[in-house]
Amino acid sequence: MLLEAPPLLEVRDLTTAYQGLVAISGISLDVAEGEIVAVAGANGAGKSTLLKTIAGSERPRSGTVKLDGRNIGGTAGHLITAAGIAYVPENRRLFPRLSVADNLRLGSYLFRGKPDREEPLERVFRLFPRLNERLSQRAETLSGGEQQMLAISRALMTRPRLLMLDEPSQGIAPKLVDEIFDAVIAIRAAGTTVLIVEQRLSEVLAIADRGYVLQTGRVVIQGSAKDILDHTDVRKAYLGV
User: How far apart are the C-alpha atoms of 176 and 129, rounded to whole Å?
Assistant: First the structure.
């Protein structure tokens, strides 16, 4: 009998406090290699804290975070990036006065000195052709949607196995939101697993395989994307139907 492969990301009983208050409490979730997994919930539910804890920006009080079976919980952020997790935070954290090209180059810092350092650029420009047209522009001159494209692209320059996105549609013109979600589908198709926090519940569940709904720092609903979208409580709370 074949044994089921362990998840790429395994979170167990994770608890983290933010500014002295417990922000997430006893959260457990799995992300299998090749999946898109969505995390939803109201403001203050703990979604961003969850991603920050996985990424090493926040230290957990208790619980474990494993990548490919190796415990990375509490590890410094730059080491987690080197291990294969790229995190695009809600505020994007671009270098606003640097050019698009320089922001992308900083994303490939782990590969400095290597001849293939800029190899991911071809993939980035296929995803977001407009970035190739704006290489010399400062990041601060880009639109909100273009800045999000740059933030995602800079993360891809680290060649991650797991890409974590925090509210990628926030502050973006509606006409560019579909482009961002199409890019997420393409990123997964190219072999990168995705964990995404998103307020646009119906849109993100349309592209996700599975999902988790958080409430006051705990997982209250989990399952396939379709099952969550069809869940009575979810439809009432988030879709108004």
Answer: 13
* Matching residue, tokens 């990424």: 55
pLDDT per position as a tens digit, 75-101 = 999 999 999 999 999 989 999 999 999
Superfamily of domain 9-239: P-loop containing nucleotide triphosphate hydrolases (3.40.50.300)
Task: Tokens for 113, please give them.
Answer: 């000195």
Is 208 within 8 Å of 38 (Cβ atoms)? yes
| CA dist., res. 235 & res. 241, Å (int) | 5
On whether the CB atoms of residues 83 and 159 are closer than 8 A, the answer is no
Long-range residue pairs from 71-75, CB within 8 A, at least 24 positions apart, any chain: 73/14
pLDDT digits (tens, 9 = 90+) for 18-51: 888 899 999 999 999 999 999 998 888 999 999 9
Place of tokens 């990628």: 168
Bridge partners, 40 (sequence order): 213
